[in-house]
Structure formats: C-alpha cells, structure tokens
Specification:
alpha+beta; five-stranded mixed sheet; three-stranded antiparallel sheet; globular
C-alpha cells in the first residue's frame, strides 16, 4: 500500500460513496479487509455490547472545529494550506461541501473550546460513527485482545493530545512530543504482533482488519514524526485527524456488510 503523505490535504466523505483521497488509492483487496473490522472502542469513539451471538458496536461521534466550507475543492485546499501553516490540521471533509477542519476531538466540549477561541468563522462540526453488528468472538482470550487492541486508538488521543497541547502552550519541548509519538508507535507494533498471532490461529477477518488498521495508524504517525514541513504539532494534528477519518470510514463499511 502506498504511503500516505501528511503534507497534502486529506479528504474523506461522510456518505456511502468511496473515500476520496488525493495521495493514494486503496485497492479492492485492502478495502475488503478493512471493511470487516469489528471496532471495539469506548466513549466518543464507540462502545460494544455483547448480546447472544452478536457484538454490537454502538454509534459514536467525533468533533471538529470547522473553519470554512467551500463549493470547490481548489478553494478548500487553499484554505487548508493556510490553516496548516498556522498550526492546524488542515483536513478536508467532503459531505456535499468541502469543509476545512482544524482537528478531531473525542468530546464536544474539547472541540467547542477550540471553536470559542477563534476570532471568527469557526463552528462545531460532528463526525458520526455508525452502529454496526458483527458475530461475537467466542474465544475470551482473543476477544479480550481485540478489545484491548481497539482501545489503543483511544490511547492515541488521550496520550498524544495533552503533550501536543503543552507544546503549543510552551510548557513542553518538541523532543518530549517526539518521544510520545515513538512510544505510541511502539504500542501499536506490540499489539499488532499479538493480534497477528491470533489471526494466524483463528483466521478471523476482523483481526486481520485490525492489523491493517494499525499499519495505517503507524504510517500516519510516522509521517508526523519524520515530516519536514510545518511544525511537529501541526503534523500530528493532521495524523490524528487522518486516523479518526479511517475509523469513521471503517464503521461505515462494516455497517453495509
């Protein structure tokens, strides 16, 4: 799979159409694998309820600070580049209009606080995560590992956002944030290796999809870690927005199975 460049605006849809991504095309095999992931998260990222033979992944929401909306992609890209230069994520959401957002947050309160601090034009935007149902994983050890693996994405938000915010406020050094990103990538690799072993034992497509999702998350964080344009904080905001977008798209795909 082609690496994702965090130096260009990313675009994702909130519809049933395929994702529009300027920097890469997901091939059909990879898309099929990703489509069957059973995402077990808590809080704003989603939650799981076990009933009978099925596992229901509850609907959830993520929140953005939207800075502008445009009819043309070219105008949105221009505004996104300006936002990234100012330290924002500069992500583009296409749901009938091209919306430029500054970041993705787990709670409405976090996003609203960002909106309230802007001089003008920013509004709160909600990214909906659809509810899906998948067959339950009977092996409790494997099921627990899958739950732990999917909760890693919550830890990405919880572990990286505070350090990034401290850096933005001058209370932390860039080297500390870099170390936090490296640690997050290490966690991803540890979980991925464990889950890969379970996949080899069980052949469960959900576990294979989770491994693929971890790979994509690691690629996004690597782009933030090794990029040379903009600030480290801006690149990380973009990476976390990218991971959130992939999370939403996976839920949409699973819901259509």
């Amino acid at each position: 799979m082609q690496l994702i460049s965090s130096d260009e605006p990313q675009i994702f849809r909130r519809s049933n159409k395929r994702t529009v991504i300027r920097t890469f095309r997901v091939n059909k095999i990879a898309a099929a694998i990703l489509a069957v992931s059973a995402l077990v998260l808590t809080g704003a990222i989603g939650f799981a309820l076990y009933t009978g033979k099925f596992m229901t992944i509850g609907a959830g929401r993520l929140y953005c600070a939207q800075f502008s909306i445009h009819e043309s992609l070219a105008e949105a890209q221009k505004n996104a580049e300006s936002l990234k230069a100012a330290g924002g994520a500069g992500y583009i959401v296409n749901d009938g209009g091209f919306r430029v957002v500054g970041g993705i947050y787990k709670s409405r309160e976090e996003a609203q606080s960002v909106v309230d601090k802007q001089a003008g034009g920013a509004v709160l935007y909600e990214l909906h995560i659809a509810k899906v149902t998948r067959p339950v994983i009977d092996d409790k050890t494997v099921a627990a590992a899958v739950k732990t693996g999917f909760s890693l994405h919550i830890r990405l938000f919880d572990g990286l956002y505070p350090v990034m915010n401290d850096l933005d406020k001058g209370r932390q050094s860039e080297s500390v944030l870099m170390a936090a990103i490296t640690a997050a990538k290490s966690d991803i690799e540890v979980e991925r290796q464990k889950l890969n072993g379970y996949y080899e034992e069980t052949g469960r497509a959900e576990i294979a999809a989770l491994c693929g999702f971890f790979d994509r998350a690691s690629v996004s964080l690597t782009a933030a870690e090794t990029g040379t344009t903009r600030t480290l904080s801006s690149r990380l905001k973009y990476a976390l927005a990218e991971i959130a977008a992939l999370r939403a798209r996976l839920s949409e795909a699973v819901a259509k199975l």
